[in-house]
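Re: duplicated header lines in exported C-alpha cells

Our pipeline writes sequence and C-alpha cells for each protein into one text file. With two proteins the header for the second block appears twice in some exports. Here is an export where it did not happen, for reference. First protein block:
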Amino acid sequence: MENQVFGHCRLVRKIGEGGMGVVWLARHENLQKDVAVKVLPQGFASEPEAVQRFLREAQSAARLEHPNVVQVLDAGSAGGTHFIVMQFVDGTDLQKILKKKGKLDVADALAITKRVALALGAAHRMGIVHRDIKPANILLTKQGRVMVADFGLARDLKGGATITGAQDVMGTPQYLAPEQARGEKVDGRSDLYSLGGTLYTFLTGRPPFTGASPVSIAVKHASADQKPEPVRKIAPEVPAEVEALVEKMMAKKADDRHATGEEVAAAIDRIKGGPGTLVTVSQDRVLTPQKRRRLILTGVGGGLGGLFLLIFLLGLLGPNKAERAFRFAGQAATDAERLVRYRVVTQGFPQSEWAGKANAEILAMLDRELVQVKAAAFDGKILFRDVVARLDLLRGLYKEGAKTVEKVETDLHRSRVMGRTRDFGEALRNHKPGDKGEPFKQFVSPEAMKKAGEQGVMGYIGLLLFLFTEFGGRVEAYEIPPDTLTLQPRKEATVRVKALVLNRQKKERLTHKYLVTWAWQDGDWYFGEKAIVEEK
C-alpha cells in the first residue's frame, strides 16, 4: 500500500493501526504538506449504507474546527477502499505518557481536561458526539498543544446513525458512559462521563473500573450500585474539590453531570482560583517531554470502538488470504480485539471454511463469557439486575449467538424465580404468630414500597400472612411440585406451591395449594399484583 495515492495524498509510511483502520503518514501532492490518512477495512466496502453513513459523518466532522481538535480535511473512496484525510499531529498520546509517568500532576491533569472539555463543547454544539474519549485519543504535540483525535468516526446526532448503528455499543470499556454500556441513546453528557473517567486515570494512574473481561467492566459502568474507588484514597495529594469534580463528571445519571463541556472548563477554572493559567490561549502549553517520536494517534486501539479491524495485510499475503486473516485474529492480545478480527474474517470471506472456523471461535468466546455470567449469578456475587445487564451487553456484542444468550437468560430467570419462591417458603416456615413480617419485605418491589410507604407495605404483608396461615396458624411444611413454573422472562411468572398449615383453633393440619405470582420490576422478580392466590 506504500506509495499509493488517495485523494491527492501519497502514502509514505504506516504510523499506527487499530480496530477502525491503519493510519499512514502521507504527502498531499497539491498542497505539499504532510497529512495523516486513515484507511478503513476492506470489508467496509460491502455495506453501501455504511459507506454512505461514513461519508456523511466524516463531512460533519470536517465542519468542526477548533484549536484542540485534530482536523478532518477530506474523506472519500479509491478503488473500493475508503479513507479519511486528517491533520498530521507531531507528538504523542496521553496513554503513552501515562505508561511512562504512571500518573499526571494535578495541574497538568486539569489543564489537559479543560482543553478537551472545550473541544467537546464545540463539537456538541454542532450535534457531534465523540463516543470514545480516552487517554489514547488525546494527543500532545511537541509544542505542548492538546488535541482530541478520531472525530472522523463520531456520531452526528443531527445526521443519524454511525457506521456501527445508532444503538450499537461503541467505545472503550474502561471509559464507557452508563447509557453507552446499556446501548441507549447518547448525547454530549456521555462524552463528559468518559472525560471524567479519563481525568480519574490522569490523577490515579489507573482506569475507574477493571474486570476479567470487557463486558464485566462495561457492566460496572452501567450499574448504579458500582462506583470507582475514591480518587483521594488512591492519590491523597489530590484536592477534595478535584475529587468532587471527577465524581460529578462520572455521575451515573446523565442529568446529574455537567450539561456542557464549557461548564466543566468553568468548574476547573474555579478550582484553579480564576482564569486558566496552566494552558495559555496562544500555545496551549502543558507538558514538553523530550525526544518524542513523530506519530499521530487517531483513536486507533480500542477493541469495542467498532466492529471492524483493518486487515491491511490481506492485499499482500498471497492466495490464502482467509486463512492468514484467521491466524492473524488468533494472535490478538485481548478478547475484544480477537472478536473484532474474527468478525472481519466472517464478513470479508463469508464463503470460506475459515469464516466457519472464525464463527466457531466467536461462539466459543461467548460461551466463556456466559460461564462467567452464570457463575456470578449462582454465587450471588452481583445483583440479578446486573446479571441481566451483562447479558444485554453480550447480546449486542455477539449477535451470532443471540439464541444462546436468550436460552441462558431464560434458564437464569427460571432459577431466580424458583429461588425467590423457595426463599419465600423458608420465610413462611420461620414465621411465628405475632412476628411483624420483616423478612417478607424483600419480596416487595422498591417502587411498590415507595408508593405505599413502609407502613402500608407492612400492613399488606401482615394481612397476607394472616390469610395464608389460616388466621394465625403456622406453616409447618412448604413444597414446590416439579414442573409448576410458568415463565415469561422480564414479564411475569407463576409457581404452584403446597403448604401444610397448622390451624391452632381447630387443632388440625391442612394442606393448601397456592399460586404465587411474580412480576419483573426494577430489574428483579417481586410479588405480582395478586401475589398469592389459593387454588381450590
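Second protein block, exported in the same file:
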Amino acid sequence: MIKPYTATSLSAHHLAELTRLMVEEVKEAAVFFMDVDGIIESWNSAAEEMKGYNAEEAIGSHLSMLYTPEDRSCGWPQHNMQEAREHGFFREERWRMRKNGSLFWARVLLTALRNDAGEHVGFSKITLDLTEHKLLEHCVREKAETRRVLRAANAGKWTWHPDTGEVEICENFLALLGYANDATTVSFTQWLDFLDPAHRSAVQLAFDNARAGCPKKSLHLEILMRQKNRECRWFDARAEWYQPSPDAPYVLQGISIDIQELKIVSEERSQAIEQLQAEDVRKNEFLAMLAHELRNPLAPISAGAELLRTGRGNEDRIRQTSEIISRQVSHMTNLIDDLLDVSRVTRGLAELNMRDLDIRRVVTDAVEQARPLIQLKRHRLALHMPGDVALIAGDEKRLVQVIANLLNNAAKYTSQDGQITLDVKIHAAHVELEIVDNGIGMAPDLVGRVFDLFTQAKRSSDRSSGGLGLGLSLVKSLVELHGGQVAAASDGVGRGSTFTVMLPRILTQQAGNGASAAATPVDPAPARLNILVVDDNVDAAEVLCMLLEQSGHDVTVENAAHQALERAALDLPDAALLDIGLPDMDGLELARRLRSVRGLADVTLIAITGYGQEVDKQNAYAAGFNHYLTKPVDYAALVALLGNVSKEGAGLRS
C-alpha cells in the first residue's frame, strides 16, 4: 500500500471537501486535474482568469491547448506528462499561451496522481503567473540593457523607501529633468520639489494611499514634472511594491515615461474631434437650411402650376403667375449653381480666364450686381475709388462675384437704412478693397470661422436673409486662387463688420491680353426647325415641346433612346435635345449613334441634363454634343442656340 501524501486527523470526506474549497477559493494559482491521457477534468476560477478559457471550454480538452504552437509541435506536453509519470512530478518555468493568443510566463508543477494501490489515475497541475516577476528579474540581470531602453523611451526608474523617506532616482531620469550630475538619492520632500507646484499635493496623496495599501496597492498617475530650466513635461508614472528579501521592508519601485508628445497629440486629437463635431453640426444646419431654401420657391411654383391647371385665370393673371414661376425657378437655379460653384472651387476644379483688369471696372460691375439688395434695404453706399488705373491679373467674372458677394453679405446683415462703405486703395504691390458696414457684427468665435463652409450668423427662424452659408467660403477660395488674401474683423455683436481683400497688382501697365471684340453681326430671322426632344421625364419633355412649338418649330418627342434612334432615322431632325440620364441607353451613347445615322452626321446635338460638373460637359462634347445646358433650362439661351442652327449644318459649340 502506498503511504498517504498527507497526514491528517480529518475524515477522508472532510479532507476532500476542504481540498475542494481550497482549489476553488485560491486566487493566484490555476489548479486543475486531468486523466491519465492529459484530458482536463476540472477547472478552477483562477485558471479561467489566468488562461482565458471557461470551464465548458477547458473540461474535455487536452492539456496541449495551453502550450504555445512551438511547444506543441515538438511534443513538449507529452514530454512533461512522461516526466511526471516517471519521477512523480515535473516542474518548469516557461511561456504559456492564453485563449486570446497572448503569452505569460508560468511556473508549472505537474504531478502524477496515484491511488492507494499505486496505480496511475491522472495528473494535477498548479500554474502561477510570474510574468511581472520575470520582467523584473530580467531588468535586474540586464541593467545595461535597461538603461538603454529607458534612454530610448525617455523614461526613468525610481524607488521610494517609505521606512527611510528616501527616493533613489536613476541617472537617466535625472538627465531627463536636467539634473544629470546631481545626487541619485534624495529625500521624499526633495522628490516632490521636482513636480509642478500645482501637482504636489495630489501626488503626495497618491503616495500616501499606496503606502496605506502596501503591498497590494500599486501606483499609477500622470504627473507634471518641472525641469531644471523651469519648463514642465508630462510623465506617466507606474509603480509596484517590491520586497528585496523576506526580511527587508517593502519599497515602491516605479518607472516614469515622458509622455509630453503624447499629451500634445492627445490634445490635438481632442481639438480635431471637437472641430469635426462642430463641422457635423454645421453640416446638419446647412442641410436644414438647404431644405428650407428649396421649399420656399417650390411653394409658389406649386401654387402657380395649380392656378394654371384650373385654366380659370385671365390673361393678366396667367402672365403674372408665369412671371412668379420664372422668378422662383431662377432662384432655385441660383441656389444649385452656388452649390456646384463652391464644390468646383474648393476642389480646385475651377478654371480662371486670366486677363489684365482695371480694378475700378471690376468694382463698378460688382456694385451694379449688388445694388438691388442694397436699394431694397435702403442702405447708403459710400464708394471711394482711386483716380488712377490700377491693373490686376484675374478672371473678371470671378472677381466681380467676390466683391458682389461681400457687398450682398454686408447688405443682408445690416438693418434697413444702414451704412456700407467700399474703399479701394492702391499700394505699391497690391490693391486693397475694404468693405465696412454698421450691421449686426460678429462674435469673436464667428470671426475665426466666418470663411468656413456652411458658416452663418444666427438669425431668426424666418431666415429673412436667406442663403446657404456658401458665399464667404467661395470668396476666400477665389481670392486665394488669384494669389490674394481676405480677412474679416468685427468689434463685436452689434458693432458692424469689416472685410478686407488684397490682390496682387500688376506693376507695369500694359495693353490687355484680350482680343478686341469683333462687330456684332445682325442675327438673321430664326429658321423653322425640325427638332427631336428625348427625355424619359414625360412632363418635362411635353412642356419643352410646347415651348418650342410656340417658337414656331416642328417638334417630335420620344421618351426612350431606342425609339428616338428609329424616329431620327426617319425624320432626320435639324437639332436633337437629349437628356443624359436615359434608362435604356444614356444620352452619351445615343449621341454617338445618332452621329452614325446616315444624314445625321451634322445634326446639332444639345444636352439637356441635371449633371453640371465640368467633367460631365467634357464627356458630352467628346460624345458629339454641340451644346450643353443644365436643368432647369434657360429658355432664352436655348432659343438663342436654336437661332444659330441652319438647315445646312450644326451650330457652334458653347
